[in-house]
Amino acid sequence: MQKTLSVKKDEKRQNSALYLALFIAIIVFISFVVNIFTDGMFLEAKNLQVIFSNSVYPTFIAWGFCFLFACGYTDLSVGGVVVLGSFASCAFGNLFGYPGVILGGLIVGTLLIFIDFVIFAYTRIPSWIASISLALIYEAIAIFLRINKFTKPHVDTELSKSFNAIGQLPINLVLLIVGFIIVYFVYNRTSVGLNIRAIGGNKEVSRSLGINILNTLLSVGLICGLLIGTSSVIQQSYNLKTFSMSGLTSLQLIFKPLAIALLAQIMQKWINIIVAVPFCSLIIYGVFNIMTFFGVPSGTLQDVFLGAFVIAFGIGGQRGVKEVVK
Amino acid sequence: MKEPILEIRGLNKRFGPTHANKNIDFTLYQGEIRGLIGENGSGKSTLISQIAGVYSPDSGEMRIRGEKYCPQSPLDAYKQKISMVLQELGVVGNLPVGVNVFLGRTGQFTKNGVVSLKALNRAVAEQFEKWELPMPPLNSLTGNMMIETRKIVELARALSVDPDIILLDEITQSLSLNNRRKLYELLQKLKSMGRSVIIITHDVEELIEITDTITVLRDGEVVGNVVSANTTPDEVKRMMVGRDISGDYYRADKKAQYDDEVVLSVKNLTVAGELEDISFDVHAGEILGFCGLSDSGIHSVAKAVFGLSRASGGSVYLAAKDLYIKNPMQALINNVGYVPKDRDSEALMVNASVRENFALPSLGELTGPLGFVSPKNMKKLASEMVSKLSVKCEDIFQPVSSLSGGNKQKINLGRWLAKDLKLLILDCPTRGVDVGVKAYIYSLMKEAKKNKIAILLISDELTEIIGMADRLIVMKDGRMTKTISRDGDFTEQAVIEVMI
Fold this sequence. Notes:
The complex is a heterodimer.
Chain A: H1 2-37, H2 45-70, H3 78-96, H4 98-122, H5 127-146, H6 171-189, H7 191-201, H8 203-208, H9 213-239, H10 252-267, H11 273-293, H12 301-318
Helix pairs in contact in A: 2-6, 2-9, 2-10, 2-11, 3-4, 3-5, 3-9, 4-9, 6-7, 7-9, 10-11, 10-12
Chain B: E1 4-15, E2 18-29, E3 33-38, H1 44-51, E4 59-64, E5 67-68, H2 74-79, E6 82-85, H3 97-101, E7 110-111, E8 114-115, H4 117-130, H5 147-159, E9 165-169, H6 177-192, E10 196-200, H7 204-210, E11 213-218, E12 221-227, H8 233-241, E13 262-271, E14 275-283, E15 287-292, H9 298-305, E16 313-318, E17 323-324, H10 328-333, E18 336-339, H11 343-347, H12 354-359, H13 363-366, H14 375-389, H15 405-417, E19 423-427, H16 435-450, E20 454-458, H17 462-468, E21 471-476, E22 479-485, H18 492-499
Parallel strand pairs in B: 3-10, 3-11, 6-9, 9-10, 15-20, 15-21, 18-19, 19-20
Antiparallel strand pairs in B: 1-2, 1-4, 4-5, 7-8, 11-12, 13-14, 13-16, 16-17, 21-22
Helix pairs in contact in B: 15-16
């Protein structure tokens, strides 16, 4: 009996590795084809570096979404949290150097997402409604801090150029690898990760088996907060500035990570979702890079494609899986 | 005399106006297999849910091994070595089998914060081996598995705590014949180990066969305790309903009787990995039965005929309407009804009202001249069906989730009977219903047969198939192995020989 079990496991692992190899081969092939049409510019080292650096911070947000979806919640305030986290990273960074950049974003990001989950856990308001209200509040705070572009802001919103290393190679690559290892183990191989997935699958069974729903939800808040906070830090260090947004426009910030998470949902039939996320992030940013090469206007037609991707990936992700996104 | 392990005195539980358990006195002894029986809504599940810590009693006292026992959650029950397979709970579909078995207790496999899935799966495999349960692939997600496999996973989970008392709520009716036999052996093994079992099933004969004693509940009260060896099915049924119920509720005739007109013709139907080369005709007024062991594919036949599975070969031809069924919508609008085995997740809208559930398959007929669904017609249909089927509910606006299993099944089946059907596909129609409802469902089937409706009856209960079908198709490993007519050797023995 044991023998059969281990053989099946080995087969599964081999298949997964095969799918991953096939997937990478397809991306490489398409990249070479695109490269021909862009006169060799697509595969230039500088362009690849831009694609990679752009894809790192959404990867962390997408991992956060994986935890959110796994426990059956939706948090639309993430964009607002990223803005405030970036502001904190910037303000404390300019005051205290790299420790300020890192801790500012991490603490604010973690705190705000944790607050979100405290509200989700203690109230019966559907998370998407509560999180829209929270997004409005976070956006308003950001506007208050920033006032407007003609007045002096209450906090610095432009980080000194000397702190841009976190968002650049090789530090962002190191962060991605370390983040991947931690997230992979937390999601797949820890009791808290399994409990998070359990309450998303069947809350009543989870409760009856002694899983503390409240503590598990607060754990999700903490884990997602750390991921969103990390994303804020990388984002601020890479872009150096962040704009305040109003009228729920901060939702724009979560659309690419959402598309990444949904694409990863589709791919989890073949590859572990946490492994799939960074690859999907590269694909999404690669596609937008290609669109830019081909002169597709950003802000209009590119957004049409982004919206279409989210819908298409959402449909794909739901096939054969009950309630991927709640 | 063995020591009592569980003592209950004066237990009461109310749900709003419903007094679900009234002054229950109950004593369970070490090494005893106790059966609980009663009509749907008699309070059996409520009683064991309180023992399991799912509900708290309003009043009364429970004692375990002489100590006061007030479980606030199922976790408290686990701590007292009481485990359960409850009707309404289940597995976590998005987690693999292995994790499901030790869910909530994965900490014991954690080293340096990381759960060793290898050690966990090894422990799970040991549990399956120890209790001689059929082991599904441990890394597969339970959500994709059949209800029977999911119940076995739940059973493994309950046994993995090495329980002193195990509570089994209607588990046998989710199991096929072979696994049911394994469960009986398991019960004897538990008894020989001095463990106690409380089991609920609606199959009176089965209950008498596998238990030491039986407690009968009626309208929330204990109406009697009997020793299984000294009782008869008729006595138990009489205690359950308070009047005599004839034991013979199956067909009395021994002859296959149906029209020549073919309603449905299935030719070489193949569904990858489930069915291979299935061919049969069903005639007007015929009850065509399907039986087989687990994984024989009988339940897949129902899904494939109704267009729910994608056929990789062959055809499903609805001769009565001259069309090939390719999807459920086609089947639905062409007078084909389907009652799935897993009523909660595949058939009913459990959070919707009784009215909406009755109306769902008949929306076309309930639409008014302007194209809107008429609330008046919906109400009329639901009220008529509630009264005709004697559904126990507060009113037609009550959510289906709050009804007992038998009443849910009445809605599941009854809503199709409100339509003018040509073909009715029934997959385990009497799963989780009491003898009274069972008899009523059989009478509905007889009436449907009389009205020339063709019926596909898929069942894990041989007595049911033999009692009701005109012809019987035995399946094994996704293939048809034999067709037996009611006129021929239509006995359990003959069927089992082909089945195994």
